[in-house]
Specification:
This protein folds into two domains: 30 residues, no CATH class; 248 residues, Vaccinia Virus protein VP39 (Rossmann fold, 3-Layer(aba) Sandwich). The radius of gyration is 19 Å and the shape is globular. Strands 1, 4, 5, 6, 7, 8, 9, 10, 11 and 12 form a ten-stranded mixed sheet that branches. A two-stranded antiparallel ribbon has the order 2-3. The longest helix is centred in the first third of the chain and has 15 residues. The protein is of the alpha/beta class.
Length: 287
């Protein structure tokens, strides 16, 4: 069943079914859901399909190829989209950073950047005068695929931050929907913040209120990867996350709900966040 048919059936359902039933069906079968509260990553991993599945890489490749061929506007989470929302605060912050650098240079480290999804999505909207270098740090099988099929003179792929930074010293760290899928997100974040970034951008990251984290399984509908999958995910405490940045010398300069509603964001305990941090010693004006 193709996407056009799915949209038609959805419209018919909304017209024929009671609103409460439509809401339940949408939440149950079309939205990302978070289930469980696991004691540790190993326990959650054992109960999941795992994020490093070859299925996911194959779907991301297919969607990426459609974007490159002009058959889709952008790719997100393995889905080729014919409509796009843009993270305008992120685009503006990158633009401001670039024009304040010698030669309008902009070097971005995209940690967990898939096959360059964000680069393809927003690079065309940046000023043509910007000298952009975009480096993706990913899992080895994504990096191998990226280097084989998708690398350009602007887009690069690495398996670790040290090698990436040695070749392309960055000014900006982008963390888009990645920290919640790491076994030890705070430890990795502290390692990254020890490196000399002037700006750190967090986008599409699920945070929850309070001082406690929650480790759950993220259940993803069939529409994303061709079949239902699930994998561990942290719902991180907003307060704890801010504290890590403050201890590393960063100040929160911008915050709002992310431009993509990816899940059960109607729940008042958690929602997708977009945040922009700047190093305190950086005297650049506000983004």
């Amino acid at each position: 069943m193709n996407r056009s048919t799915n949209r038609l059936l959805a419209r018919i359902s909304k017209q024929c079914l009671p609103p409460l039933l439509v809401h339940w069906l949408t939440k149950r079968f079309q939205q990302v859901r978070y289930v469980g509260n696991y004691a540790n990553w190993q326990q959650a991993q054992a109960a999941s399909d795992g994020y490093d599945s070859d299925l996911i890489l194959d779907r991301v490749c297919q969607a990426t190829d459609k974007v490159i061929a002009g058959e889709a506007i952008c790719e997100r989470d393995g889905v080729a989209l014919d409509q796009a929302n843009y993270p305008w605060p992120v685009i503006y912050a990158l633009q401001r950073t670039a024009i304040e650098q010698p030669g309008n240079s902009l070097h971005v480290t995209d940690f967990g950047g898939s096959l360059g999804s964000t680069w393809r999505h927003i690079a065309p909207l940046l000023n043509d005068q910007i000298n952009l270098q975009w480096s993706v740090i990913e899992q080895p099988h994504f990096v191998a695929m990226g280097q084989q099929r998708y690398s350009t003179d602007k887009l690069h792929f690495f398996t670790d931050a040290q090698t990436c930074h040695a070749q392309h010293p960055p000014q900006v760290l982008l963390l888009s929907g990645v920290l919640p899928y790491l076994p030890q997100p705070y430890e990795m974040l502290k390692q990254l913040l020890a490196m000399p970034y002037s700006m750190v951008i967090i986008d599409r990251m699920m945070c929850q209120k309070g001082i406690e984290d929650r480790l759950a399984l993220q259940h993803v509908p069939k529409a994303f990867y061709g079949r239902k999958v699930n994998y561990p995910v942290w719902l991180l405490s907003f307060e704890k996350l801010i504290k890590v940045f403050e201890q590393a010398g960063y100040t929160l300069r911008f915050q709002k709900n992310a431009y993509i509603d990816s899940s059960e964001t109607a729940h008042d305990r958690y929602n997708d966040q977009m945040m922009i941090f700047k190093k305190q010693s950086d005297t650049t004006p506000h983004a």
